[in-house]
Design a protein that fits this description.
The protein is α+β, with helices and mostly antiparallel strands. The chain contains 12 helices and 16 strands.
Length: 461
């Protein structure tokens, strides 16, 4: 692997024979853009600069690249903990401008329970009645730069993480904990908006009107609707891979539930939903049989698939079985966080004799940066689609994140490819859900919504 990694670095250096500072300047410009596509470009540029810095021993470039990876990773909700840890080990002088995200200790007595769009209004619901002077509303406008901000400071606390919401006709709506006592909601747009709001009991209701938008306003939370988005064309080929099978049961979890059976049920349901929506769908296996890892992506390549989705269920040892849960999506990369490495070792173990072959194929696939970026986008859309649908019907659904990992089943795919860990079959609650037909259908519906969202976003890019 050391030789393979050295070859990767060499080819990246040759393929990107452009002045480092020019690439850095371009990446910084992309990072400032509100376009997700540009932010992905920035992330990819920073990753390439990071590899070149390692090759050339350039500490200054490494500092800038790491800083960019962390900033773009946060914007794209990509797991960059490994890079944050590496950044923290740099000399204090080199990281003086980096401000790590800190958990704010909240002291307010009011807590935000939910945020939703209802009857064309943004409704914030709290656990207690709002008081008279608890909400402070003001505007911050810069007409020269065409930036209009409408700010609500609420004496309250919220969920652990900030939320970005979306409404047609509004550029940005962000909700975050501003300080220990203040929850801040910022509505931002390039043109003036008309804001109306009122407090009633435990609710703050806000109506946002953009007179310049003539189309009917449709609100979406985190870019996802409960119903599937409409598409103009569905001329796409999708290959679904149900992990393990036959002699390989996959993970054996709570009450002896077997991964190979659970993932096949979800894969079949996903196939049914996507076909009903007009897509062409194939499965690497539609029964309990064993297929070598290399043959799964070979099959997808033969079918000229537009995307490849491998479905698996996660597992941990008995000691942590009741603690660890959540939905994860992985895309292929040489980056190996300790978390990704553990999961990959478990999923790769069924086909150990293939490792030499895939070591070579991994190198070829890694320098195809276009597929890596596209796979990253697909993973994010699938993760968000599944979470939004599951959370609308089930409580305590955990987002375990989008991650990079060396999964052999994804190597060799000539199209964007991801591995979805639909949950932990070792976790009592999650395992019971995973074997439930209603939960499997909901999971499949969410993944199907994510697939549609990916193709819609691809058309816009």
């Amino acid at each position: 692997m050391v030789k393979v990694f050295a070859l990767i670095l060499f080819f990246i250096t040759v393929l990107h024979a452009v002045n480092d500072q020019e690439i850095l300047k371009r990446a910084d410009s992309f990072l400032k853009s509100s376009s997700k596509s540009n932010q992905f470009r920035a992330y990819n540029d920073y990753k390439n600069l990071y590899l070149r810095a390692l090759l050339n021993g350039d500490k200054k470039l490494k500092h800038s690249a790491l800083k960019g990876i962390i900033s773009s990773g946060h914007k794209l909700h990509i797991d960059v903990k490994r890079y944050e840890q590496e950044y923290k080990h740099l000399s204090p002088a080199s990281r003086k401008n980096y401000k790590a995200k800190k958990n704010i200790k909240v002291t307010s007595s009011h807590k935000l329970k939910s945020v939703r769009f209802y009857n064309k209004r943004l409704v914030l619901q709290f656990d207690k009645n709002l008081q008279k002077k608890q909400v402070n509303y003001f505007t911050l406008n810069d007409k020269k730069k065409s930036i209009y901000k409408y700010v609500f400071d609420i004496h309250a606390s919220m969920l652990k993480k900030s939320n970005t919401l979306k409404q047609v006709g509004v550029d940005k709506i962000k909700l975050a904990q501003y300080n220990p006592n203040t929850l801040r909601l910022v509505i931002q747009n390039k043109t003036p908006l008309k804001i109306r709001f009122f407090k009633k009991g435990k609710e703050l209701s806000i109506k946002i009107i953009n007179k310049s938008v003539k189309t009917k306003s449709v609100a979406v939370f985190n870019k996802y609707k409960k119903k599937s988005p409409k598409r103009l064309d569905r001329n796409k080929i999708i290959v679904i891979d149900a992990g393990h099978g036959g002699k390989d049961p996959g993970a054996i979890g709570y009450r002896k539930y077997r991964e190979k059976i659970v993932v096949l049920s979800i894969a079949r349901e996903l196939k049914r939903i996507l076909r009903a929506r007009g897509f062409t769908v194939y499965m690497t296996r539609d029964s309990d049989r064993f297929i070598k890892l290399r043959n799964r992506t070979k099959y997808a390549n033969r079918k000229n698939a537009d995307i490849f989705i491998s479905i698996h269920a996660n597992a941990v040892g008995r000691k942590d079985a009741k603690k660890v849960c959540g939905l994860e999506c992985y895309f292929l990369s040489t980056s190996r966080s300790s978390r990704a490495k553990k999961v990959a070792e478990m999923e790769n173990s069924a086909d150990l004799d293939e490792m030499d072959y895939y070591g070579k194929q991994s190198f070829l696939n890694t320098i195809n940066s276009h597929n890596i970026v596209a796979s990253n986008k697909l993973a994010i859309d699938l993760q968000r689609g599944a979470l939004a649908t599951l959370k609308s019907r089930y409580k305590n659904v955990k987002d375990a994140g989008v991650r990079e990992g060396p999964f052999w089943v994804l190597v060799g795919a000539q199209m964007p490819s991801v591995l979805v860990e639909v949950g932990f079959i070792t976790h009592p609650t999650e395992a019971r859900r995973l074997v439930s037909r209603s939960y499997q259908k909901t999971m499949a519906q969410g993944l199907a919504n994510g697939v549609e969202r990916y193709f819609i976003n691809s058309q816009k890019r």
